[in-house]
Amino acid sequence: MPINEQRDKLINYEVFLGGKRKLGMADITLPKIKYLTNTMKGAGIGGDIDMPTLGMTSDMDLTIKWRTINTDVAELFAPRAHDLVFRGANQHYDAATGELVTDSIRINVRVLPKEMDVGKLDPASQTDSTNQMSVLYFQEKINDKKKIEIDKLNYIFYVDGVDYFAPVRAALGL
Fold it and tell me: Which DSSP string corresponds to 31-81?
């Protein structure tokens, strides 16, 4: 790892559905991951604490904004799970060597459709069609190293080398 790494940008990315490259150009808004919390208060505490619940997250939304109405918009609205993969190339500058370095990123998600906006019709313009999806499974890899994995239906909550749900699964006899 470079001592003076200057993280720069996403060079580009591709969208895959079920292992096949999708040719439609799309902008992806990745999910915000937010812990479920409850307020802890009472004797011995100087105020309120929004205490996260180990491994539990609120609904994670993913949005795909397409430039045009296309078959992908309707296909992703089918009421079933869809496996999507976003593969990208990040660029950073290594100040020690003077080189531009490329890192691979990979986001795997299993999603359910929540909403579809077919978009607008305006001559010589993009339609801005969108699919909004609820994320059931999320995995992030950087240079093929797993950094985050959240599987809501299988009690997996993995962050940077630690499966925080392992003791929960053990306590539940799973």
Answer: PP--EEEEEE-STT-SS-EEEEEEEEE---EEEEEESS--HHHHHTTSSS-
Q: In 3D, which of 173, 86, 151, 110 has the Cα closest to residue 164? A: 151
Query: Could you tell me if residue 143 is left (phi over 0), alpha (psi between -120 and 50 degrees) or otherwise beta?
Result: left
How far, in Å, CA of 28 to CA of 107, rounded?
11
Are 129 and 68 in contact by the 8 Å Cβ rule? The answer is: yes
pTM of the model: 0.92
8 Å CB contact between 104 and 142: yes
Model confidence over 48-84: pLDDT tens digits?
A: 999 999 999 999 999 999 999 888 889 999 999 999 9
